Amino acid sequence: VADDALLCASELASNAVRHTRTGRNGKFQVVVWRGRASACVAVLDDGSDTIPTPSPSRPGRLAESGHGLLAVQTLAAWWGHHTYRDGSTRGTAVWFRLDWKPA
Fold first, then answer.
1. Are 96 and 40 spatial neighbours (Cβ–Cβ below 8 Å)?
2. Which of 8, 85, 96, 97 is the most exposed place for a label (fewest CB within 10 A)?
3. CB 26 within 8 A of CB 46
4. Closest Cα partner for 95 from 18, 3, 28?
5. What 8-state DSSP symbol labels residue 21?
6. What pTM was estimated for this model as a whole?
7. Which residues of 64-101 are buried (b: 16+ CB within 10 A; e: fewer)?
8. How far apart are CA 43 and CA 96, in angstroms?
9. What is residue 58's predicted lDDT score, i.e. its pLDDT?
């Protein structure tokens, strides 16, 4: 589960830099909540004019990019996004939840 969390968090952070205003001298924040049998990770960025959407999977397509949200969607129990505005701050939070059997 730790490897899955690291991969998914890395994908969301990369997307924040590549696809949002964060990549133009902005910032992003990673927030992690861990419970007994699940963890939730959110990446808060400076927002964009589009919403996070997984690229459609196409057989035989070997692109080097465009598969990050598909990986998150496949590995996570849940994932989603939320556009927020807090005073003068605005952006997008993209999050995922991973579950495991409690010890």
1. yes
2. 85
3. yes
4. 28
5. G
6. 0.86
7. eeebbbeebeebbeebebeeeeeeeeebbbbbbbbeee
8. 9
9. 62
Residue found under tokens 């990019």 = 65
DSSP string for 60-95: T---SSS-HHHHHHHH-SEEEEEEEEETTEEEEEEE
2-51 tens-digit pLDDT? 999 999 999 999 999 999 999 999 999 999 999 999 999 999 999 999 98
Contacts 24+ apart (CB under 8 A), 80-86: 81/51, 81/52, 83/47, 83/51, 84/44
Query: Which one-letter DSSP state was computed for residue 11?
Result: H
What's the pLDDT tens digit per position in 61-79?
555 566 889 999 999 999 9
